[in-house]
Amino acid sequence: MFWFTKMNNKSHHKSGFTLVEMLIAMAVTLLMMGALAQAFGYLGNSIRDSKANLELSNRTRAISSLIRSDLAKATVSVFGPKNDDRDHKGYMVYYEGPLSDVSGIVLGSQPSTSEPTYLQESRFGDLDDYLAFTAYAEEGWFTGVVPRFVVEERRDELDDPSGDTNLNDYVPSSDPRALEPVVITSKYAEIIYFLSPEYNTTGGEFTYDSVGNPVISDGLLDSSGAALAGAAGDNFPDKMRLHRRVLLIRPDLNLRNAIASPGQPIGSLAKYNYTAAPYSGSDPYIFMEPDLWYGDTTGRKPAILDASQQSRAWQIGMAPVHQQCDLSVRRVLGGDGLPSNGAGAGAPLLQQHGSVAANSIDDLELPHNRFAHVRIAGEQLTSTAIPGIRFTSMPLLATGSQLPLLSKAVGDGTTSSAYLPSVGSTGVSTAVPAMNGFLRPEFVLGQDLSHTAVPSNFWGAGRRGDDVLETNMLGFDLKIFDPNAPNIFWMGPDGAPGASGIDDDGNGAYDDSFEMGASNTDDSVITSDDPLFFDAIRDIATSGPPSLVASRGGFVDLGYAISPGGAGRGIGALRKVPSAPVSGIVPGANRALVETAASGFSVSNSPLYDIPADLYESGRALAIGTSLGARALRIYQPTFDTFTSGYEKDGYYQGNGRATTMLDNGTTASIDFATSNNLHVVGTLWFQEHANLRNFTDLAVNGVDDNIVINSTASPPYTANVGIDDITERETRAPFTTTFPSLKIQVRLLDKSGERIGQATVLKN
After folding, report:
1. Of 553, 557, 551, nearest to 529 (Cα)?
2. What are the domain boundaries of the chain?
3. Contact (Cβ atoms closer than 8 angstroms) between residue 92 and residue 478
4. Of 128-132, 261-265, 737-741, where does the model show the most confidence?
């Protein structure tokens, strides 16, 4: 028998991938790697974006937290005027520049390179507001620096009240460290917040225009000097920094004893006669001394740089002193009420020129004692002088002129300018107020360019940046709550009240004004910050129903109704109505709509230009001319200020040059310094002390009813204005006399790396 076995013959050839399989595998691998790379890239971008957003959030939070902390220390707890000595100590001031949060939207012109329908200027917010107040540090201390000689001179006076007679006397010229900064502390301080732009410079010095204002840089340059794309020509500053100055309140550093410190100005801070090269003994540079008011023709010129600027010593003459110390300081006034230029030529050298004194918190209630506040000399206000009487403006913030952006015409069918003011029945634009923009750069710490040649490492440019909180700012916007600010119903995209072509209210008429704001339509509510506010206040007719005003109350800019950079674009919308021909301008019918506490506009209580009387009487608005018809608005600074009653008892006459008082014998005496010398004034001036003014000075505190009005010829005869020391006898008053419930501060930052914008808001009630 045969057995047969089936053999399982397996193949012994070597296995592998075909070329097609390899290509497929490689393609799949590449796809997977691409997906992973994309995933990692997305993750990396997400991490980078999150990090950038977190960093931007931290920056905005740090600024808002600091502002909130500072405001919590404010000595002022009420946003209203100080009426008597029982009110708050110190001050709070908020200056509203002509720009607003919508200036870039309503006045911008350059489209974005990436999105043509988007105006790149719309990223800018309100840039030119200013906030300052006194603060008390309940916990901890405020710190700052002063030159060593200031502290040592005061210490020497305390140690040796009988005079410089012992071996321990302090001699600054013998102290090589006399200008060295030393740290001091205080529980009280003056805190200031403001934005400052980049300025053009030539040879390390500011470039000035024909009227003496520093020229703001418009166009960032690359390393080759070429303008960066999209930066130049938009009329906006290209780099803004947020500054915070903390000026310590230390009146104890003022010298008290003439014997202890011979040659030093008593009641003021010590000075230092600096004679090192390049300064000679005959014309030294004296530290802690301002430029001579109102013009300085001396060789030193601490603030002014050349002869063409000598007439601006009144405006920037205190700037060098603010560079040299972190003290709250003021010019010392002479006996005539004008800023003192010191003693005559026969006095010791250190007394020959003007002096500065350290403020107390009571001193700071008076606006002229505060940081960067100046009084314009009468010679600068008008060419018409009053014989034998000098005068100045009331204290103002030392600002430059407003941006060229604001010269754009209002698009309302007229040729009126957005500049303030556009006035009168003819709509003619008159002289532009000169001080209505950013704080002058000479007051920015470290921008004291005239001191860079002083052989000292401690002052001048060496402090640049010490007060900078943040760069690349897009906005620092202050708003105050106005309980009566109008919020107005207005047409939506269909361009008709209610729904277009529908009788929303059933009154038989289609798309009439009574349908504005109808429910379930595209109509919306317009506030004073909305770009359509101009159209709304211009086009609302007198016959419009009360329902056009949806509600009242909101945060607004001071002077929002007529601010040239605001949504109202100047006073044009309130001066004109659509039915008026281009050549004939008539008052708008809706003017009373915005006559509210913070609007800066008044029909019923305006001496001129529809600007409220309070602004004129505070001196923050001033119109001057050589005739009634030629009065031009030379000053306009809408400012919330706690103000003071101190000007009613300072021994000087503040007023418009006209006053009347009842004499002891019952007769009436009057003065008219202004118009009798062909000077027509609307607003308050500060007059030099003069014998002819004494009977008309401080009438509101003399216990007499000075301005009784008697009309014996009337039938029946009457006596009016009966009231002892009433408000009608006051020389001044706060620019806004309403007490406001709240203040809002908004900061906006730019992260240039990713073109991100961060924003934070602080409320103070």
Report:
1. 557
2. 652-732
3. no
4. 128-132
Which helix (H) or strand (E) element contains residue 25?
A: helix 19-72
Residue 39 CA to residue 33 CA, distance in Å, equals 10
Mention every residue, 6+ apart, whose C-beta is less than 8 A from residue 126.
Answer: 97, 99, 100, 101, 103, 475, 476, 477, 478, 557, 746
- Distance, CA of 337 to CA of 731 (rounded, Å): 15
- Residue type for 438, please? F
- pLDDT at position 432 is 43
Distance from C-alpha of 460 to C-alpha of 179, rounded to nearest angstrom: 12
- In DSSP notation, 351-383 reads GSS--EEEPPTTGGGSGGGSTTEE--BHHHH-S
Written in H, E and C, the secondary structure of 128-144 is CCEEEEEEECCCCCEEE
HEC states along 281-307?
CCCCEEECCCCCCCCCCCCCCCCCCCH
Place of tokens 């010490």: 466
Cβ–Cβ < 8 Å for 317, 310:
no
Give one DSSP letter per residue of 79-109, joined into a string. Answer: BS---STTS-SS-EEEE--SB-TTHHHHH--
pLDDT digits (tens, 9 = 90+) for 454-478: 545 556 677 888 899 998 888 999 9
Contact 88, 642 (CB under 8 A): yes
Distance separating alpha carbons of residues 580 and 538, to the nearest angstrom: 11
Give per-residue pLDDT as tens, 77-117.
887 887 655 556 899 999 999 899 988 888 776 655 555 56
Residue type, 328: S
Instruction: Categorize the per-residue pLDDT at 357 as very low, low, confident or very high, splitting at 50, 70 and 90.
Output: very high
| Residue 354 tokens, joined | 């003007």
Buried b (16+ CB within 10 A) or exposed e, 629-651: eebbbbbbbbbbbbbbbbbbebe
Lowest mean pLDDT among 30-44, 207-221, 575-589, 702-716: 575-589
Which secondary structure element, helix H or strand E, spans residue 534, and what is its range? Answer: helix 533-539
